[in-house]
Amino acid sequence: MKNKNNFKKQNILEGSRAVALTIKNIEPEVISAYPITPQTHIVEDLAKFKANGKANYEYVRAESEFAAASIILGASATGSRAYSATSSQGLLLMTEVVFNIAGLRLPVVMTVANRGVSSPITIWNDHQDAMTVRDAGWLMFFAENHQEAVAQHLLAYKVAEKLKLPAMVNIDGFVLTHSYEPVIIPSKSDIKKFLPKFKPNSNEYLNPKNPVTMGSFARPQYYQEIREDLHLTLKNSTKEIEKEFKLLQKTIGTDISSSDSSALLEYYGPKKAKTVIIAMGSMVGTIKDVSDEMKSVAVLKIKSFRPFPYEEIKRILKTNTNIAIIEKATSLGAVSPLAQEINQALNNDKKNIHSFVAGLGGRDITKKLIKKAVKIAKNKNKSSQSLYIT
Amino acid sequence: MQEIRIHGRGGQGVVTASELIAISAFKNNHYSQAFPSFGVERTGAPIEAYSRIDDKFIRTREQVYNPEVLIILDASLLNTTNLVNGCNIDTIIIINTTLSAQEIKEVLKEKWNFKTKEKNIHTLDATAIGLKILGKNLANTVILGLLAKNSQLISLESTKEAIKEKFQEKGKEIIQKNVKAITKAYEK
């Protein structure tokens, strides 16, 4: 059972530690966080690096998540590279500021360790927190494992700073943040080859020597155009994301960035599979194992939820297949969020689409559950409702 | 792939044990993974954690339902919880107890109607070693010495390395004591 792959470069780390080390090497100038439940070891580790003299960023301990978000908004508005991390209720408390950060076109990067939301009180993993702010105007990436999370943070900063859009890297709370697995952390010098120091144009940040107005009032004659502009930049960012992803693979190497052909999605399994499962985040790993075990089952992993890769999905899912969307989120009173997007992407087509909600509040996504979803998708007719399964 | 499930109570270092196993296996040139069952970690509450070891990157994230190795840090849990749920006659059971393998076999049969072979049960009074060497009522590292003795996937050396890495911030003295404790368990 010996193996030779990358062992010299890899470390076995907790997911939170892997993200924290990556952020340290990205060298943000300001980090702010609220250090209480729900939080992760990410900001705890970043605080330790600073306290031990291993990092130069300003670390601002905030009095609430709302304040933490406001502090990174302010830091970014003055032209600094800024970072925060949060989870569940923390993200909800940040919501107002999250919308403002995007509206102000500030390239903030934030890790969301995805967890469920109250009530009932839960501390466990699902994607309901992130889905609550899906319309805020942020780039939203979802990672399958530690290595992908590391790579997505590099990509997030690069694209964010280029397009002046904030970016959120979603990693499954506990499942990824609290698990140990081998991962490669890129060095500062490697990162610099891909992600240079953040230098915004002089008219794009607050500076007493060159005063500008940010966050001004917009009357009805202007508001809609400004919102549309943000929408179009985000929608059209897929090209830039793909371009930067290729550059990431070239400069930092595919052992860190993955050898996937796209930063937006990944198709795994037989090309003409009868059933394709569509999912996001850590459960994709388990689904890949199921795909290996079952005949004619593939998985389409969505890595970028915003921008949403409608065209790419349509292109990949050419043949007539059964589709099983499995997601850890709900849109109460409606079809669940990922299924809404897939229905839109495949709206003119006769595919047998099924939407499943599973794994809410930390319920385990087992192989058995995945096989059950495949069976339903295969044997039942298209449904316009989301089915909650366990 | 080998799957390991560890049972104990909050405060007994169940999660740390699973992490040490993963680090040790990695140091022994295997791919590995560790994660807790994500309970609310109150002192005394039943806790479980998992490790997986394989020759390729481990993708699955589901909890461990059918372990090849079951580690029990607190034998008192056997009175209230079916720890052997999902185990079979070949599951290796490593348990911190003052009872013998034969006695544990009988408890499992009578209490949980679980059949196993005596040779698959490895017992050790790890708490006694913990109290003596670590000066604390802790068995989580000690029991790893017994696991290393009965596993192809982690060795005593790789487990020592894992302790050095994981406890780096705790200082030399704690590392030395733990290394001594696992060596004692290994040699017993």
Report on this model:
The complex is a heterodimer of chains A (about 400) and B (about 190). Chain A is an alpha/beta fold and about 400 residues long. Chain A has helices at about 15-25, 40-50, 65-75, 90-105, 130, 145-165, 190-195, 220-235, 240-250, 255, 285-295, 310-315, 335-345, 365-380, and strands at about 10-15, 30-35, 60, 80-85, 110-115, 140, 165-170, 180-185, 265-270, 275-280, 295-300, 305, 320-325, 350-355, 385-390. Chain A folds into 2 domains: about 10-200 and about 240-245, Rossmann fold (3-Layer(aba) Sandwich); about 265-390, Rossmann fold (3-Layer(aba) Sandwich), CATH 3.40.50.920. Helix content of chain A is about 40%, strand content about 20%. A 7-stranded mixed sheet of chain A has the order 3-2-4-5-7-6-12, with helices on both faces. A 6-stranded mixed sheet of chain A has the order 9-11-10-13-14-15, sandwiched between helices. In chain A, helix 4 links the parallel strand 4 and strand 5. In chain A, helix 1 crosses helix 2 (about 40-50) and helix 6 crosses helix 9 (about 240-250). By secondary structure, chain B is an alpha/beta fold. Chain B has helices at about 15-25, 100-110, 125-135, 140-150, 155-165, 170-185, and strands at about 1-10, 30-35, 45-55, 70, 90-95, 120-125. In chain B, helix 3 (about 125-135) packs antiparallel against helix 6 and helix 5 runs antiparallel to helix 6 (about 170-185). The interface between A and B is medium-sized, with 31 and 27 residues.
